[in-house]
Amino acid sequence: MASLMMLNCKSSNAPAENPESEPQTEQQRIVSLNATVSEVLAELGMNGELVGRDATSVYPQWIKDSVQNFGPPWLIGAEALLSVKPDIVFAVGSDLNSDKVNTLKDAGVKVVVFDKTTNLEEAKSIIKQVSAYTKNQDYQPLIDKIDADLAKVEAFTNKPKVLFVYARGTGLMQVAGNGTPMAEVIELAGAENAAAEFDDMKELTPESLVQSNPDVILMFDSGMNSLGGVDGLGSVPGMKETNAFKNRALLTMDSSLLSGMGPRLGEAAYQLNQLLKAYAQ
After folding, report:
1. Spatial separation of the C-alpha atoms in residues 101 and 71, rounded to whole Å
2. What angle do CA 135, 85, 64 make, to 5 degrees?
3. What pLDDT shows up at residue 134?
4. Crossing angle between the packed helical segments 140-151 and 265-276, to the nearest 10 degrees
5. Where do the CATH 3.40.50.1980 domains begin and end in the chain?
6. Among 191, 65, 183, 44, which Cα is nearest to 126's?
7. Cα angle at 67 between 3 and 29, to 5 degrees?
8. Each residue of 128-181: pLDDT tens digit?
9. Cα separation of 130 and 136, whole Å?
10. Coil, helix or strand for 105?
């Protein structure tokens, strides 16, 4: 299960405190360095309290348009964060080293760090825990929306084998194994992850493409665009030998939706489920 811990003492190994036991102020100045948390905050109605974000926090649109962007979370300095006078900073633990955390704590800022969210249970947990650190505790509608969308997912008699391919041009291409957000969405959508023999992300190779031979290739919109479209994808060694490419079973989805693992997780699974219907017979 995803973990969430508030760091407000000298040792980062101190046990987590219960945020619900602390009095909440009427207005908090919040910085979110994680796209999932930013979306949760938006859905909780924290529009006026979110004063800073990282480069991945682009949904909903008002966050991208009106909240100060500090750049990639792992590159953001503590001094930059302090410039917006935050009361609380949310981040993935791997993106904030101890020096940054200590600088923020010394300035009186609460720092809440958590593990990356990779499955349905963790997505619901993050929603509940983030809401506990804000004055808005009405998180249940977000959970209910996920469940309602998942209930609409149609079962397939023959599950299509889907391979998620991450691309930033041909220079960086990876596939998603177990324990990744994309694998979770694929499975929640009623399909089979074609890269289930390993965990995490792994470099895409011609051999792995031929071996997995997916029925469907799934990518981010931005990833497909980085390759120059379908023709560019076809130039990837081994791609034209797959059933997916032969049948033009090539699907793209918005990156923030497919990998968000937050309030729209059920929506992502249902959308993918509907896209896969044409390839599930």
Report:
1. 17
2. 75
3. 86
4. 10
5. 4-138, 150-279
6. 44
7. 60
8. 999 999 877 789 999 999 999 999 999 999 999 999 999 999 999 999 999 999
9. 10
10. helix
Cβ atoms of 214 and 242 within 8 Å: the answer is yes
Distance CA 120, CA 262 (A): 9
Indicate the fold that domain 4-138 takes in CATH: Rossmann fold (3.40.50)
In the predicted structure, residue 19 carries a pLDDT above the cut 80: no
pLDDT given at position 48 = 87
Q: Taking 70 as the threshold, does the pLDDT of residue 15 lie above it?
A: no
CA–CA dist 86, 54 (Å, integer): 14
Tally of residues, the chain: 281
Amino acid at 21: S
At 274, which helix (H) or strand (E)? helix 265-276
Hey, is 107 helix, strand or coil? coil
DSSP string, 71-131: -SGGG--HHHHHTT--SEEEEEGGGS-HHHHHHHHHTT-EEEEEPPP-SHHHHHHHHHHHH
DSSP bridge pairs for 161:
192
Residue 272 burial by CB count (10 A; 0-12/13-18/19+): exposed, middle or buried? Answer: buried
Q: For residues 229, 232, 233 and 237, what is the CA-based torsion angle, rounded to 10 degrees?
A: 180
3-state secondary structure of 77: coil
pLDDT of residue 281: 63
208 φ/ψ angles, rounded to the nearest 5 degrees: -70, -35
Name the DSSP class of 69: B
Which one is the CATH code of 150-279: 3.40.50.1390, 3.40.50.1980, 3.10.150.10, 3.30.300.30? 3.40.50.1980
Against a cut of 0.70, is the pTM above it? yes
